[in-house]
Design brief:
It is built from nine helices and seven strands. A seven-stranded mixed sheet has the order 3-2-1-4-5-7-6, with helices on both faces. Helix 6 links the parallel strand 1 and strand 2. Helix 1 packs antiparallel against helix 2 and helix 1 packs across helix 3. The protein is globular. Belongs to the BMT2 family. This is 25S rRNA adenine-N(1) methyltransferase.
C-alpha cells in the first residue's frame, strides 16, 4: 500500500530562507549586483522545490551554494546597492510622489498615517523621513535597529484598528517568495492588515513593486492577469509606472473582497519566458 501523501501548504517565507553567511562587504558593480540577486533568486526557487519534495540532500547542497555566494546578507547588500542613488534610487520615493497631494492635507494636530514596510532595508528612505508617516519596518534579517526581524506571513493578525495600516509596501518582496501559492497568500494577507480609517482623504493602499520581467516576460503572468487577481481581492489600480527594470503599482482597496481561484495557466509561450506566477486559492 502506497504511503499517504501529505497535503501541501504554502511555506512560510522564513522557511525558504537559507542559513545566513557572513557578508563579504566588498563593493559590487551594477552588473555584479544584478548577477548576485538573480542567482540568489534562482537558488531560493530550487531550494523551495527541493524542500517541498523532501530532498534534504539537495536542500543541503543548495544551502552550501547560497553560503558560497555570501548568503542572505550579501543579497541584502546587493539590494541596498540597487536602491542607492547611482543605481536608480529609493523606490519609496515613487510612493511619496504619488500620495503627495494627500500628504499635504496632514498636519501635526492629526495622527500620522501608519505604513507597514515589508522587506525593509533602510530606516532613511523617503517613507521613513516623511513627517506624516509612522513607518513599521520588518524584514527576515534585520540589519538596522529600526527594522524588526519578522516574517510577514507569521506576523499576528490585527486585533484592532490600531494594529492595521493605511499603506502596505511590498517593494521587490512578492518576487522573493519562491512559490506561486505563497505569493497569492501574501496578497490575501495584506487585505487583513489594511484599515479604512484614515485621518486624511487616503484610501487603504498597497504599494507593489516587481521586476518588469515578472509581468512582461512570464509564461503565467501579465498585467491583465495581475489586475484580475488584484481586483478580486478588492484592489483598484490608481497609479502605475514603468522603468527599464521595474514596474510600480499603487493599488487602492475598495473594501470589497471576493477572492476566486487563479491557477497556473500559460498565457504566453516561448523558450525564453520565465516561470513567475501567482496562484490564488479561493479559500
Amino acid at each position: 500500500m502506497a504511503p499517504k501523501r501529505k497535503s501541501k501548504r504554502p511555506m512560510l517565507l522564513s522557511h525558504t530562507r537559507p542559513p545566513i553567511a557572513r557578508s563579504k562587504g566588498a563593493s559590487l558593480s551594477a552588473k555584479a549586483t544584478r548577477t548576485l540577486i538573480r542567482s540568489h533568486h534562482r537558488l531560493l526557487k530550487a531550494r523551495a522545490q527541493a524542500l517541498a519534495a523532501g530532498d534534504e540532500a539537495k536542500v543541503s547542497s543548495i544551502d552550501a551554494q547560497i553560503q558560497a555566494n555570501g548568503g542572505l546578507e550579501s543579497y541584502q547588500i546587493a539590494s541596498k546597492l540597487g536602491q542607492s542613488m547611482d543605481r536608480g534610487g529609493d523606490s519609496s520615493k515613487v510612493l511619496i510622489d504619488w500620495i503627495k497631494p494627500q500628504l499635504n492635507q496632514w498636519n501635526k494636530t492629526i495622527p500620522k498615517l501608519r505604513v507597514l514596510e515589508v522587506g525593509a532595508l533602510s530606516t532613511k528612505n523617503a517613507c521613513s523621513i516623511n513627517p506624516a508617516l509612522d513607518v513599521t519596518r520588518i524584514d527576515l534579517n534585520s540589519q538596522e535597529s529600526g527594522i524588526l526581524k519578522q516574517d510577514f506571513m507569521e506576523r499576528p493578525l490585527p486585533e484592532g484598528e490600531d494594529e492595521r495600516f493605511n499603506i502596505i509596501s511590498l517593494s521587490l518582496v512578492l518576487n522573493y517568495v519562491p512559490d506561486a501559492t505563497g505569493r497569492g497568500e501574501m496578497l490575501k494577507r495584506c487585505v487583513q492588515f489594511l484599515t479604512s480609517k484614515c485621518p486624511i482623504e487616503l484610501a487603504p493602499s498597497l504599494f507593489l513593486v516587481l521586476p518588469i520581467a515578472c509581468v512582461d516576460n512570464s509564461r503565467y503572468l501579465n498585467e491583465e492577469r495581475l489586475g484580475e487577481i488584484m481586483n478580486c481581492l478588492g484592489f483598484r489600480l490608481t497609479q502605475s509606472k514603468r522603468t527599464s527594470k521595474l514596474v510600480f503599482h499603487l493599488w487602492e482597496h475598495t473594501g470589497d473582497y471576493s477572492p476566486k481561484s487563479f491557477k497556473k495557466e500559460e498565457l504566453r509561450s516561448g523558450g525564453t519566458r520565465n516561470n513567475f506566477a501567482i496562484i490564488l486559492n479561493k479559500k
